[in-house]
């Protein structure tokens, strides 16, 4: 079994992981990055980037439908679903190649496989080429998160969608129920409604985008209704029943209704990827599927850090990247003494800018 020695080993190649690896390399640390699937993580491959590509196509479609308002005569536009999806996947693939280029440019050795802690300052990496061992004084866990699966609503490309199925549909349903009115749910609701799908959104909170300011939620909710979407707020899903090629969905609450839809799209939160990382017997503490850290990404196990979605909310790519810089600069001894723990609760923008690399 081959052993590879590094100063820093990063597990996970998403916006937290690859930024941590780049910053470590910039600071002169011999760095390895382990990724078992695709460089760029969920954000680049199955989240922020491909979703925004779909939404851009929806924007163009909406604008073309209003061409006459600009004095332009055009035949009524029709969406080409497969072409729209293909463009979205192409955008992600191009950026993934960009991340691979950055790894090479910064001298970061990339290992393809699944990594788990295998003792003090050690990682065991299992991939297609077998097993290898990485030793590093500092190990950064940036394994991200995945969609929360609801019981009885397991992913199915024909009837139950999570973000992966929603990003690569084979067809457009006539009626779609979106469970969850957070950012992900509303993005997909907006896209599919623009494609001509009848969209219902159910949310347990009393407003869409419940994590945002109330004024923003009210404005977005008004606009979504004006576009023709149906919002079921302050209620949940009490029961689902599949009959032939339809879902019968009973909503809970005082005004609970029964809906009949073709596809259910679930956007009901995420859970951290903490399984099979070798955390057993270590000082790493996990709460509600997320790794507990201090303000610099350090866990309860010396030399082991966690950043990004696996380290808890807010689940944002930019937050993961900032945590990556803070974590690496702290372990390298570059964090100014004025920056105390929990700098994100909140941190002045000037301080955040000072943390970005040159």
Topology:
Elements: E1 3-11, H1 17-26, E2 31-35, H2 41-46, H3 48-65, H4 81-105, E3 109-112, E4 114-117, E5 122-127, E6 130-141, E7 145-147, E8 160-161, H5 163-167, E9 175-179, H6 183-194, E10 198-203, H7 214-227, E11 230-233, E12 237-243, E13 246-251, E14 258-261, E15 263-266, E16 270-272, E17 286-287, E18 290-291, E19 304-306, H8 317-331, H9 349-355
Parallel strand pairs: 1-2, 1-6, 2-3, 6-19, 8-15, 9-10, 9-15, 10-11
Antiparallel strand pairs: 4-5, 5-6, 7-16, 12-13, 13-14, 17-18
Helix pairs in contact: 1-8, 3-4, 3-6
Compact overview of the structure:
The chain is α/β, with parallel strands linked by helices and 358 residues long. The protein has helices at 17-26, 41-46, 48-65, 81-105, 163-167, 183-194, 214-227, 317-331, 349-355; strands at residues 3-11, 31-35, 109-112, 114-117, 122-127, 130-141, 145-147, 160-161, 175-179, 198-203, 230-233, 237-243, 246-251, 258-261, 263-266, 270-272, 286-287, 290-291, 304-306.
Strand segment tally = 19
Number of helices: 9
Q: Whole-Å distance between the termini?
A: 38 Å
Rg (C-alpha, Å)? 22 Å
**What coarse outline follows from CA principal-axis ratios?**
globular
Major sheet size, sense and barrel closure: 7 strands, mixed
Word description of this protein:
The protein is α/β, with parallel strands linked by helices. It folds into two domains: 3-47 and 85-146 and 271-355, FAD/NAD(P)-binding domain; 149-268, FAD/NAD(P)-binding domain. The chain has helices at 17-26, 41-46, 48-65, 81-105, 163-167, 183-194, 214-227, 317-331, 349-355; strands at residues 3-11, 31-35, 109-112, 114-117, 122-127, 130-141, 145-147, 160-161, 175-179, 198-203, 230-233, 237-243, 246-251, 258-261, 263-266, 270-272, 286-287, 290-291, 304-306. Helix 6 (183-194) links the parallel strand 9 and strand 10 (198-203). Helix 3 (48-65) packs parallel to helix 6. The longest helix is centred in the first third of the chain and has 25 residues, at 81-105. 39% of the residues are buried. Mean pLDDT is 90; it is low at 336-358.
């Amino acid at each position: 079994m081959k052993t590879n020695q590094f100063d820093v080993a990063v597990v996970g190649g998403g916006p937290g992981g690859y930024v941590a690896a780049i910053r470590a390399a910039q600071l002169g640390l011999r760095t390895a990055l382990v990724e078992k699937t695709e460089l760029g993580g969920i954000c680049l491959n199955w989240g922020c980037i491909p979703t925004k590509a779909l939404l851009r196509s929806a924007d163009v479609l909406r604008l073309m439908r209003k061409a006459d308002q600009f004095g332009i005569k055009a035949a009524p536009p029709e969406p080409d679903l497969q072409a729209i999806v293909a463009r979205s996947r192409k955008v992600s693939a191009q950026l993934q190649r960009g991340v691979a280029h950055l790894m090479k440019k910064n001298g970061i050795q990339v290992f393809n496989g699944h990594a788990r802690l295998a003792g003090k300052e050690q990682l065991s990496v299992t991939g297609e080429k077998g097993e290898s061992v990485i030793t590093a004084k500092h190990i950064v866990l940036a394994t991200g998160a995945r969609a929360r699966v609801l019981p009885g609503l397991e992913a199915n490309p024909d009837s139950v969608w999570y973000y992966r199925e929603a990003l690569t549909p084979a067809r457009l349903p006539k009626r779609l129920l979106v469970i969850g009115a957070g950012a992900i749910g509303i993005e997909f609701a907006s896209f599919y409604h623009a494609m001509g799908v009848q969209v219902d959104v159910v949310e347990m909170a009393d407003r869409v985008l419940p994590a945002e300011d109330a004024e923003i939620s009210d404005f977005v909710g008004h606009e979504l209704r004006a576009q023709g979407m149906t919002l079921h707020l302050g209620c949940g899903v009490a029961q689902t029943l599949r009959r032939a090629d339809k879902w019968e969905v009973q909503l809970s609450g005082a005004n609970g209704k029964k809906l009949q839809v073709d596809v259910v799209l679930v956007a009901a939160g995420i859970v951290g990827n903490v399984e099979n990382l070798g955390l057993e017997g270590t000082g790493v503490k996990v709460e509600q599927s997320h790794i507990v850290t201090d303000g610099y990404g350090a866990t309860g196990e010396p030399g082991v850090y966690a950043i990004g979605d696996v380290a808890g909310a807010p689940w944002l790519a930019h937050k993961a990247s900032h945590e990556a810089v803070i974590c690496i600069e702290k372990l390298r001894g570059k964090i100014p003494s004025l920056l105390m723990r929990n700098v994100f609760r909140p941190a002045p923008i000037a301080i955040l800018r000072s943390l970005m690399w040159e």
